[in-house]
């Protein structure tokens, strides 16, 4: 499935956002404005003004709403959850060129807060994924002690771990040891 650059970027951003949540099994890594600023920087979220505690509270709530889309038991539920998220967001498509990126569409309204910006852009990206029949690519890591989410972009939809170097490698070592003990 060839994802365009915008899509790849939005999906990476939503995965990163959701995985800051302790709901995914790790530490909460979005607890203060410094961490929120670091997230904005590493995902190159454009046009962000000064952030305050309201932004933090709203983005923390948004990551849980996105997590529920990833963990929906079936596509119909994912659609309902994503529609709920989208319906509470102002969405205004706008063609833009900035920071050397080619012409692309932003979905957040002018003057949008950070959470509206993220809800619109990331929500629309997930909507397109669902429309393409790719809901099954929204996954949760199979390692028993890890709940991180990821988007399986592999051709044969075979990816099961959030990160092959960490969880994948850890699980292979564990399986190898288990075989040796048997
Ligand atoms: Zn942009
Ligand atoms: Zn994992």
From TrEMBL:
Coiled-coil annotated residue ranges, if any: none
UniProt domain Zinc finger CGNR: residue ranges: 137-180
InterPro entries in UniProt: ABATE (IPR010852), ABATE_dom_sf (IPR023286), Znf_CGNR (IPR021005)
Pfam families named among the record's database cross-references: ABATE, zf-CGNR
PANTHER family for this protein: BLL6575 PROTEIN
Protein name stated in the entry: CGNR zinc finger domain-containing protein
């Amino acid at each position: 499935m060839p994802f365009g650059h915008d899509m790849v970027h939005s999906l990476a951003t939503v995965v990163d956002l959701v995985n800051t949540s302790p709901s995914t099994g790790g530490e909460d890594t979005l607890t203060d404005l410094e961490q929120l600023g670091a997230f904005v920087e590493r995902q190159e979220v454009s046009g962000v003004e000064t952030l305050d505690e309201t932004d933090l509270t709203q983005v923390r709530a948004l990551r849980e709403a996105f997590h529920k889309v990833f963990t929906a038991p079936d596509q119909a539920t994912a659609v309902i959850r994503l529609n709920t998220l989208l319906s509470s967001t102002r969405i205004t498509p706008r063609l833009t060129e900035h920071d050397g990126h080619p012409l692309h569409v932003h979905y957040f309204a002018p003057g949008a807060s950070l959470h509206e910006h993220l809800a619109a852009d990331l929500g629309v990206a997930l909507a397109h994924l669902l429309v393409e029949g790719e809901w099954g690519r929204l996954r949760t890591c199979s390692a028993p002690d890890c709940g991180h989410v990821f988007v399986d972009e592999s051709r044969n939809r075979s990816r099961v771990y959030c990160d092959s170097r960490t969880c994948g490698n850890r699980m292979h070592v564990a399986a190898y040891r288990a075989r040796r003990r048997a």
